[in-house]
Specification:
Number of strands: 14
CATH superfamily of the largest domain: P-loop containing nucleotide triphosphate hydrolases
Number of helices: 20
CATH architecture of the largest domain: 3-Layer(aba) Sandwich
Largest sheet: 5 strands, parallel
Radius of gyration: 30 Å
Distance between the termini: 74 Å
CATH class of the largest domain: Alpha Beta
Length: 470
């Protein structure tokens, strides 16, 4: 696999000294991992390049043959206003610096200065451009949520408004190089969301997943960073860490909320510096992996309680998405049912069974503490036991801990939050009417199912409905 280009769009180096631009490109790759450049030694060709190609950043020499860098700067800013320009010169004159900054330069670098200062300036310019682009995208999607690449979410069936917002947000942050934190209850699909980010941003790169729960500090460091021979007793051969294995791709760290405080320090350094030390190594290595983490722990509360570092929390929270529980997206139940029935039938080599009309109503009344994973397990169990005719409801009743012959009120009692009242307490007659209306809504107008929900006969429900209509 070819090395991933950094940054994605090239950096344009404009200078009439080829030896200096060559040395600069080598230094930038060595110090910061940047390896994607276009070099221009004739200032007269700059505008033509800008018309044909988009660049991440422009390093523009000040004192070239006409047109000079100072003369080019306003023209460059007019043609490519979103592209930061860093002026480069062999001389340092305060008047020239002020003039260039007024003309729109992002920074001014003197060639005699340390290369590390230029690296920091480039990094800040690229980061600012990325944040500005992300802000525009999020603003557009906030007012009009859209999903441009639905194929990236084929493993996460969802048509509800809340899931469309999740998909839209993931699309918006996917091009960013910042970490992404995915929160949600167990079974909501956090790893699937991480894979979608990978598919949207680095599909050609490797996908590496590590569950960090239960790893002590030494095992965590060895797993992520690797080691050199002799790093510790038994380390006879070098080992490549997961960060190196994920180079140019995505490193997914699951259960990040269970990471020890000692290991959190090591992860923080990786995120801050973009580099790490294999165990036993004196020289650091640079990382080009995108970091995505997931947790079912409330990290905000964990850092308040001292169980999670505040600085790491805010580093990871650069982009944060909270996946909804299945209770919050029950409008997706019909689509999920259809999808999992087809998947289970195909996997088990069976004809896809027809679900009974009552099944959706039954599923709507259940709390699903295990979320999507629990629903999928229910459906796979039901399909595996299916013989002929319509799909039986019995496996679903058993999974919910219910008696198939009992009225459906058991489900409502087990999964519906307690009723809350306002300042005015309704009368018994009014409460009865509200219960009937709610039962009919949950049963989607089916009187037989509504009667079972209420624990009364269909005839009794019919009388109440007639009374309501009158």
């Amino acid at each position: 696999m070819s090395e991933r280009r950094q940054p994605e769009r090239p950096i344009l180096l404009v200078d009439d000294e080829p030896a200096w631009t060559h040395a600069l490109s080598l230094n930038l790759e060595r110090l910061a991992g940047y390896n994607h450049f276009v070099t221009c030694t004739q200032s007269s060709k700059v505008m033509g390049l800008l018309e044909r190609q988009e660049f991440s950043l422009i390093l523009l020499d000040l004192t070239m043959s006409p047109p000079t860098g100072e003369e080019l700067l306003p023209k460059v800013r007019e043609v490519a206003p979103g592209t930061p320009v860093i002026m480069v010169s062999g001389i340092s004159q305060i008047e020239t610096v002020v003039t260039c900054m007024r003309l729109g330069a992002f920074d001014y670098f003197v060639k005699s200065q340390e290369a590390g200062r230029l690296v920091n300036s480039i990094h800040q310019a690229l980061q600012q451009r990325e944040l500005e682009s992300l802000q525009r995208s999020l603003q557009e999607r906030f007012f009009k949520p859209r999903v441009d690449h639905p194929e990236a979410f084929y493993t996460m069936p969802g048509q509800s408004a809340v899931m469309q917002q999740v998909f839209s947000y993931l699309e918006a942050v996917a091009p960013s190089h910042q970490p992404v934190m995915i929160s949600g209850e167990s079974g909501t699909g956090k790893e699937l969301a991480a894979r979608a980010i990978h598919a949207l941003s680095r599909p050609e790169g490797p996908w590496v997943a590590v569950n960090v729960a239960g790893l002590d500090d030494h095992v965590f460091a060895d797993t992520l960073f690797g080691h050199i021979p002799g790093a510790f007793t038994g380390a006879d051969k070098p080992r490549k860490g997961m960060i190196e294995a994920a180079s140019g791709g995505t490193l997914f760290l699951d259960e990040i909320g269970d990471l020890s405080l000692a290991s959190q320090v090591k992860l923080l350094r990786l995120l801050q510096e973009g580099e790490y030390h294999p165990l036993g190594a004196d020289s650091p290595k640079r990382s080009s992996a995108r970091i995505v983490v997931a947790t079912n722990v409330d990290l905000a509360d964990a850092q308040r309680q001292g169980g999670f570092r505040k600085d790491l929390y805010y580093r990871l929270k650069a982009h944060h998405v909270q996946l909804p529980s299945l209770r919050e997206r029950k409008d997706d139940l019909p689509l999920l049912l259809e999808t999992f029935l087809e998947q289970a039938a195909a996997e088990l080599g069976k004809t896809c069974p027809t679900p009974p009309d009552e099944l959706i109503g039954l599923l709507r009344t259940y709390a699903f503490p295990g979320n999507i994973r629990e629903l999928q397990g229910m459906i796979y169990e039901a399909v595996s036991l299916h013989q002929r005719g319509k799909l039986s409801l019995d496996p679903f009743y058993r999974a919910m801990g219910l008696d198939p012959d009992a009225p459906m009120t058991q489900v409502a009692v087990a999964s519906v939050s307690p009723v809350t009242f306002g300042e005015r307490l309704p009368g018994l007659e009014e409460v009865g009417e509200l219960l009937v209306v709610e039962a009919m809504r949950r049963a989607e107008g089916n009187q037989s199912r509504a009667a079972r929900l209420l624990g009364i006969s269909r005839q009794g429900l019919g009388k109440r409905l007639k009374k309501l209509a009158d």
